[in-house]
Specification:
Strand content of chain A: 25-35%
Keywords (chain A): Iron, Iron-sulfur, Metal-binding
Protein name (chain B): Ferredoxin
InterPro entries (chain A): 4Fe4S_Fe-S-bd, 4Fe4S_Fe_S_CS, CobQ/CobB/MinD/ParA_Nub-bd_dom, P-loop_NTPase
Structural class of chain B: alpha/beta
Largest sheet of chain A: 9 strands, mixed
Number of strands of chain A: 11
Order of helices and strands of chain A: EHEHEHEEHEEHEHEHEHEHHH
Largest interface: A-B, 58 and 63 residues
Helix content of chain B: 25-40%
Bound molecules: iron/sulfur cluster
Largest sheet of chain B: 10 strands, mixed
Organism (chain B): Sporomusa sphaeroides DSM 2875
Oligomer: heterodimer
Shape of chain B: elongated
Radius of gyration of chain A: 23 Å
Structural class of chain A: alpha/beta
Shape of chain A: elongated
Organism (chain A): Sporomusa sphaeroides DSM 2875
Number of helices of chain B: 10
Distance between the termini of chain A: 33 Å
Helix content of chain A: 25-40%
Chain lengths: 305, 283
């Protein structure tokens, strides 16, 4: 089973749009949305939720008011200023460390597991999707990302599907690390801008750190051809393959507005470049690059052009 | 006045708006709190002042001579940052939240605390826009939590006089909350797509929770159906739309080249006016 994770140094580079296009092209796969902070894949793929599960992670203090003697020990020991003599005054500051609970002379505080979000199995136009929603202001997005990946693997195994396509989280922090560790291939979607070059450098460092194969897709490549060329030279010098160059296209915007992938739009002007991208990925992963029979049929019927 | 600029998600134009607002002000401090990927400096090209300041957190240091391997520290660590191997404790410092719980639990006085660097803070005046003083935080690659770094950046920034703009990290997680917390006004940037609306709703839930006065800037607006759905949504949640920034390919090209285009300066000026009016109404 192969796992392709699509990442970006930063949000807004077109990661979800490109993931959705790849979901449209790949014949047999499970989809996973690991951007648990701001999951969007379900919006573009027409998801209907089949299963909802609660995700618990971390702890929170529960205080027995009757037992508390208001001695103030918890106040002085809490390093995050979250508690005042047995009353949680700033819940958003609480790290759930349990220092208050373990050191309360009256044993008035119990640490209980915290509900940190939900994860879902959904049906979409492109197959099954595992996605999640993190509770507001909750940490542990890394753990939820791992949960989504674990469930996607389970599904791929039971349904005998050779590939998982994961829309990864932006950035290089704990959710990105959780999404990338142990994946078969990371595809970075980047823009040819000064900030895009900078972000790619940090992402390449991260992939290097985890010894993970990284391939590049330059999105909006025609926005600044000079930067695109420079980026390609840089990638070559680092031994990073450039699997695709997608020209700037307004179709991405109109597609996003209508909740479709760019390949489902009439007169899609980036179909050729996206197909090349997919073929490069498929041959790297040694997957059959053939698109689904339905897609071939639509192509023959000339519906896309 | 402390103004935070946030969005449910990256790529909606948060940094762009922060830069536009900074460039339209005569004297302002800009805090780049998007510490995983700070980008503001690429546009401002500041002359950095002196060497960057290391930002540190306290992590336990275990004295293996004193440690008996009793396991009391690992039992109280709810983040699994301490494991017992043989008869001594080992720390996995990436998991540590610096709560000090293990320190209190160890009866052998085998644990002390030491500093660990999680990132750097650099500051400087922008070369092209001398009115802008930039504070940039950079998280060390491989550090999982940005929260302590953002907290310390804000502490440093708040000691400075005048208006402060904060370019927040994307999302609605703890780093975003740390960055927007305590601001006088929070601007949420969004786009007229179903994604934009969905992420705006998540971000609004946070600013509601924190009771922050909030307004929306609609970026890449095109006067079409998408715009209306954001407008209807904002009206239903009683959040004002401060400005609409039209979609412009010319702007995107200049921005890609690393410039702050002058194209929307009047829009930025009108946002400042509304913020000042909000402040005088609030006090
Ligand atoms: S330490 Fe325990 S008894 Fe003392 S104030 Fe806190 S909760 Fe109450
Ligand atoms: S769990 Fe930790 S952070 Fe939360 S109130 Fe107790 S001591 Fe403070
Ligand atoms: S509590 Fe102290 S003595 Fe016991 S294992 Fe931990 S460090 Fe060692
Ligand atoms: S300081 Fe807190 S989080 Fe860090 S190792 Fe000790 S108990 Fe665990």
């Amino acid at each position: 089973m192969k796992e392709l994770v699509i990442v970006s140094g930063k949000g807004g580079t077109g990661k979800t749009s490109i993931s959705a296009a790849l979901a449209c092209l790949a014949p047999q796969k499970v989809l996973a949305d690991c951007d648990v902070d701001a999951a969007n894949f379900h919006l573009v793929s027409g998801a209907t939720i089949r299963e909802t599960h609660t995700f618990t992670a971390g702890f929170e203090p529960h205080i027995d008011e009757a037992a508390c003697s208001h001695c103030g020990k918890c106040t002085s020991l809490c390093r995050f200023g979250a508690i005042n003599s047995g009353i949680i005054t700033a819940p958003l500051n609480c790290e759930g460390c349990g220092v208050c609970a373990f050191n309360c002379p009256e044993h008035a505080i119990a640490m209980k597991e915290k509900q940190a979000g939900h994860w879902f199995i959904s049906h979409t136009r492109f197959g099954s999707l595992i996605h999640a929603e993190l509770g507001l202001s909750v940490e542990n997005s890394g753990k939820l990302v791992s949960k989504v990946r674990q469930e996607a693997k389970k599904m791929a195994a039971t349904e005998h599907l050779p590939l998982i396509i994961t829309d990864g989280p932006p950035g290089i922090g704990c959710p990105a690390i959780a999404a990338l560790s142990g994946a078969t291939l990371a595809l970075a979607v980047v823009e040819p801008s000064v900030s895009g070059m900078h972000d790619l450098g940090r992402l390449a460092d991260l992939a290097d750190h985890f010894r993970l194969p990284l391939a590049i897709c330059i999105n909006k490549s025609t926005l600044h051809q000079e930067n695109t060329n420079q980026m390609i030279t840089w990638c070559l010098s680092k031994g990073l393959p450039v699997f695709g160059q997608i020209p700037y296209s307004d179709t991405f915007r109109t597609a996003a507005q209508s909740g479709q992938t760019v390949l489902e739009m009439p007169h899609s002007d980036v179909k050729k470049e996206l197909t090349i991208l997919w073929q490069n990925i498929a041959s790297h992963l040694r997957l059959p690059s053939q698109t689904s029979t339905l897609d071939l049929l639509l192509q023959k019927l000339n519906i896309f052009r | 006045m402390l103004i935070s600029i946030a969005s449910g998600k990256g790529g909606t134009g948060k940094t762009t708006l922060a830069l536009l607002l900074a460039a339209a002000h005569s004297q302002v401090t800009l805090l780049d709190c998007d510490v995983e990927e700070p980008n503001c400096h690429l546009f401002l090209q500041p002359q950095w002042q002196a060497a960057g300041q290391d930002i540190t957190v306290m992590v336990p240091h275990i004295d293996s001579d004193r440690c008996t391997g009793c396991g009391a520290c690992s039992a109280v660590c709810l983040f699994s940052a301490i494991a017992i191997s043989g008869n001594s404790a080992i720390l996995f410092d990436e998991l540590c939240h610096s709560c000090g719980g293990c320190l209190l639990a160890c009866q052998q006085a085998a644990i002390s605390e030491e500093q660990k660097t999680i990132g750097t803070l650099t500051a400087g005046t922008a070369a092209a826009h001398p009115g802008i003083y930039l504070l940039k935080g950079t998280l060390k690659v491989g550090t999982p939590s940005a929260v302590p770094l953002i907290k310390q950046m804000k502490q440093t920034g708040l000691q400075l006089a005048g208006d402060i703009l904060i370019d927040c990290p994307p999302g609605t997680s703890c780093s975003m909350v740390t960055a927007v917390k305590d601001s006088d006004f929070c601007i949420l940037v969004t786009e007229p797509t179903p994604f934009g609306r969905h992420d705006l709703e998540l971000a609004l839930n946070i600013t509601r929770l924190l009771r922050l006065p909030t307004g929306v800037v609609l970026n890449k607006s095109d006067g079409a159906a998408g715009d209306e759905s954001i407008e209807t949504f904002c009206a239903s949640r009683q959040v004002p739309i401060l400005a609409k920034i039209p979609h412009s390919l010319a702007f995107a090209r200049q921005y890609a080249a690393g410039c702050i285009p002058g194209e929307f300066q009047s829009i930025a000026a009108s946002i400042w006016q509304q913020l000042k009016a909000e402040r005088s109404a609030g006090t």
